[in-house]
């Protein structure tokens, strides 16, 4: 029943935490951390050879410092681009895209446009402007360049906008944008010939950045004809600025790179079909649910320290799986929500366990404070003994007041109760001094256990010493209060050492910690035997007698003085029992 309740509690905690974390994820609490874990995956992948390779048919013509020194200060006249196009056309280039905003008029615009119309493989950029999420304006190149091209079906104009995440990084590529009038395509789409069905399904993708360099050739080398033969044949070529002051540098998971390189990575992703696939929300929720559930279930059966170790294993496991899926399969699962779930699950179970253990310790302290000394209760709370039942060696002590019937008949009822309260208070104090566990009162008798619930080696010796002290205390009571007793008090004590079953026994409404078995029965019979074999050998006398079994005698003979009292037939036991009387 307890396990069933624990498992139900684990299920409730799991469900509650899952719902909470999904809601937090929905409102963007984990966005920043998730973006950083996304970048972390790129950096780990970059250490090996699993990063996508740049296609050899993608080249970048760079407008770098050397080209500026050769051709002149930026911006350049359009005739330089016309010259570049003519050279590339001669080399059999497949497509050319300019990552350069041509918003200012130039005398050679018409010439450049005529070349574009003739070749139909040259793409000029434009930008999209937004107000919130609403497209408000399209900024095309100069009128001379864009006139007659905007609505062409063989589109030679493409937008260059790339979404910037909240932390300023470029991780996504928008491929197409639609408004009520038309659909706009990015230069990467026009360079890659992506079909309309794909664009309809994926208007935006995650950029699968490579850690390698694309073919890069400075602009002025191309103009001079200084480049490897065949490098541009059937290639897609990007032209963009790469000089340090161009202000076209962006943060990406692979570090800071130029805008033209970002476009090259998008085209590389599209042409290679090396898309990064993000896990579906239901998959992330399922992963989160089971990660939390496993921790909660584990904590039901194991300690907080072991649960902490299991939590660490789970974190390493999801980290390993997430990295493997990203590196080997370009598959992206959420890390931050899963990590938060694992940590909160441990904190939650920690809180529940502390609360439960605090309650349990309070319950154990209340329960055992009736039976044993406070310092032994502290040991119980530290050592967490088994209370559900176990077999172990213990020593059992029974004591009984001799002629109590006569004593009680001559005392008034209140006097009898007062006497018993005084007597038992002193006896229990002695038991506690010797680490005994008071088990029960039986009228004028009592039962005590030594060696449980906390096990210790010299339990037999402690039991016998308790018995001797009890006899001495009875002598003291006779001396101090004898005038109030009709007859002197004497007690009989029986002690036996052996195996017994100890633990909580009783009903659901009332439990007690006790011992059962042959060992308990024999100790009780020895206490009864003190009535039948009074101190014939000189033992006992004033205060009472102490009889111990041979098993107890073997354990105390080097420290306790005792004499052999013969072999006796004990009710319920087949073989005669060797009995020893302790000299008090």
Give an overview of the whole structure.
The chain is α/β, with parallel strands linked by helices. The chain is built from 19 helices and 23 strands. It is rod-shaped, with a radius of gyration of 46 Å.
Observed structural traits:
alpha/beta, 23 strands, 584 residues, 19 helices, 7-stranded mixed beta sheet
What's the topology here?
Blueprint: H1 2-26, H2 31-45, E1 58-63, H3 65-71, H4 78-90, E2 95-98, H5 109-119, E3 122-131, E4 134-139, H6 143-146, E5 157-159, E6 172-174, E7 176-178, E8 183-185, H7 187-192, H8 196-201, E9 204-206, E10 215-218, H9 219-224, E11 236-241, E12 249-252, E13 255-258, H10 259-272, E14 277-278, H11 281-301, H12 304-329, E15 331-332, H13 336-368, H14 374-383, E16 390-401, H15 404-410, H16 413-433, E17 437-442, E18 445-450, H17 459-481, E19 491-506, E20 511-516, H18 518-529, E21 544-549, H19 550-556, E22 562-568, E23 577-582
Parallel strand pairs: 1-10, 1-11, 2-3, 2-11, 3-5, 14-15, 19-21
Antiparallel strand pairs: 3-4, 6-9, 7-8, 12-13, 16-18, 16-19, 17-18, 19-20, 21-23, 22-23
Helix pairs in contact: 1-11, 1-13, 2-12, 4-5, 11-12, 11-13, 12-13, 13-14, 16-17
Question: Based on CA inertia axes, which overall geometry fits?
Answer: rod-shaped
Mean pLDDT over all positions: 86
Rg, Cα atoms, Å: 46 Å
Strand content: 15-25%
Please identify the structural class as seen in this structure: alpha/beta
In total, the number of strands is 23
Unreliable stretches (pLDDT < 50, length at least 5) are 536-540
What's the number of helices?
A: 19
Distance between the termini: 50 Å
How is the biggest beta sheet arranged?
Answer: 8 strands, mixed
Q: Percentage of helical residues?
A: 40-55%
